[in-house]
Amino acid sequence: MVDKWLVDCIDDDLPNIALMDLSFNTRGLLKYMHLCQAQSQGQASVAKELDKEYAIMEKELRKTIDAQDYVSTTADIWSANNKGFLGVTVHWIDADTLKRKKAAIACRRCRGRHTYDAIATELEDIFSQYGLTNDKVTACVTDNGSNFVKAFKEHQQRQVESDEEEDEVDGDGEADFTDLHSVLAAAKDDNARDGLCVLPPHHRCAAHTLNLIANNEVDKWLSSNVESRAVYRSATAKCSALWMKASRSTVASEFLEEVSGRKSIVPTVTRWNSYVDGYSRITEMPLTDINNICTQFQMKCMNDREYQFLKEYCSIMKPFTVALDILQGEDTCFYGTLQPTLEVLMGKVLAMKTSLSAMTTGLPEVTVGAIKTRFAAIIDSKEALLAAVSLPKFKLR
Question: Structure pTM?
């Protein structure tokens, strides 16, 4: 019974502990685990029970996936503690509830270099393990990493054009003959080069692409434009100094919260929209309050030009943060959401160009140009348009 309880705790993320009359703290948990270990039959017994439960769960997942006509997948590679990992998830629409379901089908070590051919081999092995053929998988979504992009580019299913017309005969009545040995040899060489590895269609993550636009094209323009270059660097540097001071000192954090009346936002490197949220939180305060904080922290004060630049920058990039929140939705974001979101985003950004100063007057055109370039295939895609008009949340006009 104790072994079964331990397995249930591991399978269900320790939900049964909440049912016990225990104080949920580290000391109480360790004490109870030692008691269970004394009554358990041993580590081998628990491991055996875990393997059994995993086999049952995997069997049920295979059965569920087999019942679906179409699924989509995602894949990602990351490193932790000097070890590489490859994760794959599968998503489908439940036929009864019409809600999206998801499951993780792989989280395995990715040894060696993360080259495109190694990624392709691992993905094909995972897909074949769960019977995910190219006819069933509508697309696999990844980030914009060059290894992922090349893996799908080099291992896409090649479309062979079939000639339905009859072979024509020469004017002299003689037919053309082809050397069968050379045709078979060429086909063998193609299969050897491709490694018989064929992957489903590839889509780049829209949220990651928007992050790249904000971090690359927008940052490059602001850093190179004569009117914005100096003020962009000085304004963002002073904001970074405020965040660093607040993150390293509890006294500074409390003072900043007291003056602003709201908790400060310290951005994270991996989330670009957190920077816009941080700039917006600072510009919500009057300039006099910001300079009082800078004086208290013994920092350089912010001038009117820098304050105005931050306000304009936040107003231009605010639609970006809204679009990112939509496209990063866990349960409500579908493929049909992408094209309308991009159209609304470009429209709102262009609508601001008439109310900007010389510091940011060209930024809306640069931003929309980058969106059209990176999302050219999506904007002109008939499949994306069909997905949008098929989504009930959008009205046809």
Answer: 0.76
